[in-house]
Description:
The chain is mainly beta. Helix content is 12%, strand content 41%.
Amino acid sequence: xxxxxxxxxxxxxxxxxxxxxxxxxxxxxxxxxxxxxxxxxxxxxxxxxxxxxxxxxxxxxxxxxxxxxxxxxxxxxxxxxxxxxxxxxxxxxxxxxxxxxxxxxxxxxxxxxxxxxxxxxxxxxxxxxxxxxxxxxxxxxxxxxxxxxxxxxxxxxxxxxxxxxxxxxxxxxxxxxxxxxxxxxxxxxxxxxxxxxxxxxxxxxxxxxxxxxxxxxxxxxxxxxxxxxxxxxxxxxxxxxxxxxxxxxxxxxxxxxxxxxxxxxxxxxxxxxxxxxxxxxxxxxxxxxxxxxxxxxxxxxxxxxxxxxxxxxxxxxxxxxxxxxxxxxxxxxxxxxxxxxxxxxxxxxxxxxxxxxxxxxxxxxxxxxxxxxxxxxxxxxxxxxxxxxxxxxxxxxxxxxxxxxxxxxxxxxxxxxxxxxxxxxxxxxxxxxxxxxxxxxxxxxxxxxxxxxxxxxxxxxxxxxxxxxxxxxxxxxxxxxxxxxxxxxxxxxxxxxxxxxxxxxxxxxxxxxxxxxxxxxxxxxxxxxxxxxxxxxxxxx
Length: 541
C-alpha cells in the first residue's frame, strides 16, 4: 500500500512538472507535418499569431559570396560576387557524380525539415529559359523525389501550380512546401547561377510525412482551394465593427477604443478623403495600444505596404485598392484592452474612415501581440559599404514581414545589398541573401522596374524615367526616384527564442546618398520588445 501511495505521489509530481513546461521547451508535438498540414498552415492567420506548436528554425542555402565570413573583414563581408559564373566561383556546396552525370549540390540538409521558399533567376536576362534540370533527393534516396526544368518546375508553368510557384520579374519563385523526415539534397545538372532555398529545420523526432508525388497528387483537392483563397483574400466581417469617421486637423490625433476583454482585431481598413495627394500616406501615422502597451507605431505608407502615395496591390495580409481603401488582415489579439489611434502629421486637414473588425480569441501561453515598427534615415551614404539595420528584437516571437521604401537620387541600380538575419545570438546569420531584389522575390533589379504582385511579395511602386535623348523622348527603365518593395511571410516565418536582428546591406553601383524607410511586422510574447518600439518625431522627414 505504501508503494502504491508513493507511486501515486510521484505521478502527481511528474504531471504537475509537465504542466509547468512552457510550449516548445522540451515538448514534442504529435502533429504530423505533411503537404496538407503545411498548406493549411499557409492560410491560417490565427496560427501566425501563436508561437509555433512544433519547434523549427528557419534557415537558408544560397549562393552568397563565401568570402563573407566575419563582419570585421570589411572587404570580404561586403563582397558582391554572390553567383557562380565560371570555374573560379564556388558559391555552392560541392560537385558530385550520379549515374555518370555531374550534379552541383546547392543544399544538403541532414535532419527533419521542409523547403518553404525557392528563388532562382534567369541566367540570361534576355532569354528566360534553361535546359538545366533540378533534382530534389529526400531521406537519402538514390532517385529524386522531385525533378524537372530548373525554372519550369518553380515558376508556375510546371508541376507546381500558380500561385504557389510563379514568374516574378525575371525569376522563378516557389512557396510550395516540400517536407522531409531525414534529409534533403538539391542538385542541378550544370553550374548554378544565383539561388536561394529557404527551409524549416525541425527538431529531431518531429513526425513528418516525406514528400512524394503520390501525396502531391492526393493533395490536389487541398491545393486548388488554398490557391484560390490566396488570390482572393477576404476581410473578416463576422465580429463586431468599430469605426472612426473623423476630420483630423493638422497635427491632430483621434482614437477609438476596442471592446474590453479577450479579443482580436481580425481586419482593419483605412481610407483617406485626400488619398490622391502623393505624399499623404507618409504623413498619417497609425498607432495601436494593447493591454496598456503600444505595439504599433508606423506611417500608413509602410503599415499597408503602399509606400509614398497610393500604389494599389493585393497580397494575402494587405490590400491597397484603387479607390484608396487600405486593408490589413493581420490577426492582432489582446487580453483586456485595445486602442487604435490615427495621427495627422500634415499641415492640412484629412478626412479618415477607419473600420476594425473585432472577433473572438482564446488567449493562452502561446498567444502573441502584433507589432509594427518604423525606421527611416536620410542620408544613407553608399560609400563605404555598410549594413542598414531594419530591426533588432529581444524576447520570444516570430518575424513575419516588412515593407521597404527607397529614394534613389541616380539612375544606377541600388539593390545589390544582401539581407543578413541573426537569430538567438548566433555568430553567423541564419539567412545570408544574394541581393535586395532577391529578398523581395525578383531579379535583375536595374532592369525590372515593373509593377508586380503576389500573395506574399510585391513591388507596388517603381520608377520609369523619361530621358531626353537628342531630339526625342525615350522611355528608359531605371531606378531613379522612389521604389517600394514588400514581403510578408507564411510558411517562411522566422521564430526566435531570445533575439532577432535583420540588416540589409547598402550596396549601390554609385557613390551617392539615399533615403531608406522600412516598416517591420512581427509577433511577440508578452515582454518582447524592439529598437523600433519608439521613434522620435524629429527623426521623421
